[in-house]
C-alpha cells in the first residue's frame, strides 16, 4: 500500500495554485500533527499492519513541519503499518523552507530518502510572477544543501507554458536544472485553475500565455532534450535517470491501494474510494468519529477498467494488452477505425504488446485517452 500524508500549509499562496493549503502557524501545525497521528492510529487498527512500500509527504509545504514533527509521523507510520525498510519516503519541499540550518540533515537522518523540490523556474522574474516564496539562488542552494545532507534521490519540479516564458528561456531552464544533476524531473504545463490570481490576470489580459505552437515546442523539444541528457520520459510529465522513477507515482499508475491522511486527502482501498473533508474543523470531526465515512464510492468494474486504461496510458510503458485481455476478457480493439486513426496520426503506437502514447500523443493526452475510452465504452455497451 502507498501512504500519502497531506500537509495543508504554505507560507503564502502562489498565484497559480489550486491545491488545498492555508496559512502556516506553529499552533496550526501542532494541531494538525495531532490529528494525523489520531487518523493514522485509527486506520492502523482497521487495516492491520499493512506493508507500506511508499510514504509521501505532499502539500502544501511539508517542509514547514519541524523535524520533530516529521519524526513523530514517521514513527507512527512504523508502529501502525509495516513500513518497508526499502520504502521510498518522499518529502515535498519549497527551496526556501529547507535552508534552515540543520533541517535537511535532520530529515535525512530520520529516514526521508527522497526530496521533491518545487523549483518551478530558474528565472527570478518568472518566479516573482508566479508568486513563489523563493528565488533561483535559493533553489540552487537548496539542491546543494540536499546533496550535502546526503540526499541521493532528488526530484525537481518545473513549469512550462508560463506568461513571459519563451522557448529559449524554457530550454535555458532545462539546461540549468540538468547542470544541477537531479535524479528526477517533473515538468508540468501551466494549468489555469479557476479562481486563482494568475487566471484572473490572464483573463484580464494583464498576462499573456505563450501561443499554442510555442507551448507544444516547449513540451516536445524539452522532453527530447531531457532524454538526450539521460532522463527517460517515463510518464507524461515525468523524467528520470534509470531506476529513479517515482515509486509512489508508479504505484498510483499501477492501481495500487493508497491511504491518504490529512485534510482533502483521497484514499482508494479494495475498490472503495473516499475523500477527507478539506476544512480542518470538518476533517477533525471525521477523525474523531472514527474511520466510517459517509460517502464512499464503490468503484464499478467499468470504472476500474477505465482507470486502468487512463492511468497506464499516461506512462511510457503504456497499456499492456495481455493484461487488458486478462482483466476484461476481451481483446483490445486496436484495429478499430478510431484507434487506427490515432496510430496513423502518430499519436499512439503498438510496441511489444503495449499500446503507448507517442510524445506527440502525450502532448494531447487528454483527447487521445478520451478517444480510446470512448471506443472501449462503445464496445462495452455493445456487449451488455
Ligand atoms: S507552495 Fe505549492 S502548494 Fe503552496 S501555494 Fe505554492 S504551489 Fe500551492
From TrEMBL:
PANTHER family: COPROPORPHYRINIGEN III OXIDASE, RADICAL S-ADENOSYL METHIONINE DOMAIN-CONTAINING PROTEIN 1, MITOCHONDRIAL. It is found in: Cytoplasm. Gene3D superfamilies: 3.30.750.200. GO terms for cellular component: cytoplasm. Its main location: cytoplasm. Keywords: 4Fe-4S, Chaperone, Cytoplasm, Heme, Iron, Iron-sulfur, Metal-binding, S-adenosyl-L-methionine. Residues 1-232 form the Radical SAM core domain. This is Heme chaperone HemW. It comes from the Bacteria. Probably acts as a heme chaperone, transferring heme to an unknown acceptor. Binds one molecule of heme per monomer, possibly covalently. Binds 1 [4Fe-4S] cluster. The cluster is coordinated with 3 cysteines and an exchangeable S-adenosyl-L-methionine. GO terms for biological process: porphyrin-containing compound biosynthetic process. The keyword 4Fe-4S applies. It holds the Pfam family Radical_SAM. InterPro entries: Coproporphyrinogen-III_oxidase, Elp3/MiaA/NifB-like_rSAM, HemN_C, HemW-like, rSAM, rSAM_sf. Belongs to the anaerobic coproporphyrinogen-III oxidase family. HemW subfamily. Signal peptide: none annotated. SUPFAM superfamilies: Radical SAM enzymes. GO terms for molecular function: 4 iron, 4 sulfur cluster binding; coproporphyrinogen oxidase activity; metal ion binding. NCBIfam families: hemN_rel (TIGR00539). The keyword Flavoprotein does not apply.
Amino acid at each position: 500500500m502507498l501512504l500519502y500524508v497531506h500537509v495543508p500549509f504554505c507560507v503564502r499562496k502562489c498565484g497559480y495554485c489550486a491545491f488545498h493549503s492555508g496559512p502556516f502557524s506553529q499552533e496550526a501545525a501542532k494541531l494538525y500533527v495531532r490529528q494525523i497521528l489520531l487518523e493514522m492510529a485509527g486506520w492502523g487498527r482497521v487495516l492491520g499492519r499493512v506493508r507500506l512500500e511508499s510514504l509521501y509527504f505532499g502539500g502544501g509545504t511539508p517542509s514547514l513541519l519541524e523535524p520533530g514533527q516529521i519524526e513523530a509521523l514517521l514513527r507512527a507510520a512504523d508502529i501502525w503499518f509495516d513500513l518497508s525498510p526499502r520504502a521510498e519516503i518522499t518529502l515535498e519541499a519549497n527551496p526556501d523552507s529547507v535552508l534552515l540550518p540543520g533541517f535537511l540533515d535532520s530529515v535525512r537522518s530520520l529516514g526521508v530518502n527522497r526530496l521533491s523540490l518545487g523549483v518551478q523556474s530558474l528565472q527570478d522574474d518568472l518566479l516573482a510572477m508566479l508568486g513563489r516564496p523563493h528565488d533561483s539562488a535559493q533553489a540552487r542552494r537548496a539542491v546543494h544543501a540536499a546533496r550535502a545532507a546526503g540526499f541521493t534521490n532528488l526530484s525537481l519540479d518545473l513549469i512550462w507554458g508560463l506568461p513571459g516564458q519563451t522557448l529559449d528561456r524554457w530550454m535555458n531552464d532545462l539546461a540549468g536544472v540538468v547542470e544541477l544533476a537531479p535524479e528526477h524531473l517533473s515538468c508540468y504545463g501551466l494549468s489555469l485553475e479557476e479562481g486563482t490570481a494568475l487566471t484572473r490576470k490572464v483573463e484580464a489580459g494583464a498576462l499573456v500565455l505563450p501561443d499554442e505552437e510555442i507551448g507544444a515546442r516547449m513540451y516536445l523539444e524539452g522532453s527530447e532534450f531531457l532524454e538526450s541528457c539521460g532522463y527517460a520520459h517515463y510518464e507524461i510529465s515525468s523524467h528520470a535517470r534509470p531506476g529513479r522513477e517515482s515509486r509512489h507515482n508508479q504505484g498510483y499508475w499501477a492501481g495500487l491501494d493508497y491511504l491518504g491522511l490529512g485534510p482533502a486527502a483521497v484514499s482508494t482501498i479494495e475498490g472503495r474510494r473516499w475523500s477527507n473533508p478539506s476544512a480542518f474543523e470538518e476533517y477533525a470531526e471525521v477523525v474523531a468519529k472514527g474511520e466510517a465515512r459517509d460517502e464512499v464510492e464503490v468503484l464499478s468494474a467499468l470504472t476500474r477498467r477505465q482507470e486502468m486504461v487512463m492511468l497506464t496510458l499516461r506512462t511510457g510503458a503504456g497499456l499492456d494488452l495481455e493484461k487488458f485481455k486478462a482483466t476484461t476478457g476481451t481483446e483490445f480493439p486496436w484495429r478499430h477505425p478510431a484507434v487506427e486513426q490515432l496510430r496513423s496520426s502518430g499519436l499512439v503506437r503498438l510496441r511489444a504488446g503495449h499500446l503507448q502514447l507517442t510524445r506527440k500523443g502525450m502532448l494531447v493526452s487528454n483527447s487521445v485517452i478520451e478517444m480510446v475510452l470512448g471506443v472501449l465504452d462503445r464496445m462495452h455497451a455493445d456487449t451488455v
